[in-house]
Amino acid sequence: MAGLDDRVGASRDELLAELRCMAVAQFSSEHAGHTLQPTAVVHEAWLRIAAQAGGSLDTEAAFRQWAGRIVRQVLVDHARKRLAAKRDVRRRAPLFDTPSDGGMTPEQLLTLSDLLDRLAVGQPRMAAVVEMRYFGGMKDADIALRLGVTDRTVRTDWHAARAWLFGQLREV
Questions:
Q1: Residues contacting residue 36 through CB under 8 Å, at least 6 positions apart
Q2: Is 102 exposed, middle or buried (0-12, 13-18, 19+ CB in 10 A)?
Q3: Residue 63: per-residue pLDDT
Q4: Distance CA 124, CA 1 (A)
């Protein structure tokens, strides 16, 4: 995995520390009793990033974008497995109905992921903004730099994407 280190320009330990920070930040808003731990997400994400990214990770921003996407995939995969064992995965809870202990339930995470996939078909930049901001923990300025747009465009995309997502949730 030295190639990944060289392309991004950071050591393996720095990249893993960055992934861990992203995972811990994501788990700080998860509901109590989550069976997946940040360390497991970091290890799974590291393996997936190295396997999937190929030569596309030439900057730290590219790494963070990929990491946000991979963290989302790992969390969604885990939620699907948990739900498959418990009940029919077609029953979904709306995202704005968050449990009292905070965070999203597996059902809500799957709903968000499905909606992001639908949003990406018509508005890929908006979906990327949500993914990088929510799952990747990136700031507007970093997202703007990565996407080659202004901070204002990122904020506009964020607000439009949230409005679209909440509109879609009302129909679920």
A1: 74, 75, 78
A2: exposed
A3: 77
A4: 30
Q: Ramachandran region of residue 139, left (φ > 0), alpha (ψ -120 to 50) or beta?
A: beta
**Three-state SS sequence of 89-131:** CCCCCCCCCCCCCCCCCHHHHHHHHHHHHHHHHHCHHHHHHHH
* Cα gap 114→40, rounded to integer Å: 23
The string of pLDDT tens digits covering residues 48-87 is 776 766 656 677 777 777 778 888 888 888 777 777 666 5
Query: Helix, strand or coil for residue 151?
Result: helix
Position 147: which residue type?
A: L
Asked whether the whole model's pTM tops 0.85, one would answer no
| pLDDT for residue 87 | 55
AA identity, residue 99: P
Mean pLDDT value across the chain: 76
Q: Which amino acid is at 6?
A: D
